[in-house]
Structures are given as structure tokens and as C-alpha cells.
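Our preliminary data section would be incomplete without showing what the modeling component actually yields. Below, a chain of 154 amino acids is followed by its predicted structure, encoded as C-alpha cells that our downstream tools consume directly.
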Amino acid sequence: MKMSPHYSKAQANMQPGVITADGFLGDDHRSLADIIEADEEQFSRLDLSFQVVSEKLRHLIEEGRKGLGEPVTVDGKWIVTISEARGRLASPFEDGVFRKINATVVTARDGQPQGTPLLVSDLSLHLLEKHHFLEGKGAPFRLEPADLKRVLDL
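Predicted structure:
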């Protein structure tokens, strides 16, 4: 995929220290366009839909917020814990500002957490939903397609 001026500006905004201390790219040295293209291909191979994944994550976050910081069991299948910090984060695509809300989502069996949790922020949900950007490999909020499929049971 070709890097447009819009993607070039967004990738510059994703560098460490511009919006967040760690940035959005981790140790991934591919271009933003290549990262997005590879993740779109992986979604297709896993038979995932960006819309379905974002709707499921949004539902889990909304339900998790009802716990006021305490773990909440959602739909009998997930344990969701929400943490909120003061302040806001701008989208590197310059299309919004988002509250610092993080959700930890883990599969539950018999009311007990099972497996590795997902860490999702309001901003990372926006990036997934609107830009198909899951962050670069090694980034703290990277959403691996296989992990999304496994944890969300899709």
C-alpha cells in the first residue's frame, strides 16, 4: 500500500514522545500503510470484521464501565476491568481527542479469568474502528488479530 500524505503525517504523530511517551509503533519498522495492509489481510484470513470486532469491544467497555473500576463479568463470558486517568489523548490521524480509558478484557470460565487479556483504550478502539490500525508490533496497546479472535470468541 502506498503512503499518502495523510498517512505520512499520522506516522510522524505516532513516534515516541509526540502524543504518548511510547508512541504507537513499538519496534515495528514497517510503514503505517504496510502495517494496516498486513493487519487487514490477517483479519481476512481469520474471517474477522473490523465492524464486528469494534462493536464487541465497545459493548464490553460500556458494560465494564458499570463496575466503576472493579471487575465486571459481561455476558457470562468475559471479565472486564476499566481504569480511567485524567486527561485526553489526540488521535495521531488528527480526527479526535479521546479520554484516557483503558479496558482489560479476559475470557472467563466458571467466573475465573482464563488466558492472556486484551488491553484496549478508547483511542485504540477508535484507531481499529476508523482506520483499521491495530498499532505496530511491540506497542503497548497493540491488538493482535489472533488475540482478538480468541478472546472475543469470534
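The radius of gyration is 15 Å. The chain has one domain: 5-152. Preliminary results of this kind motivate Aim 1 of the renewal.
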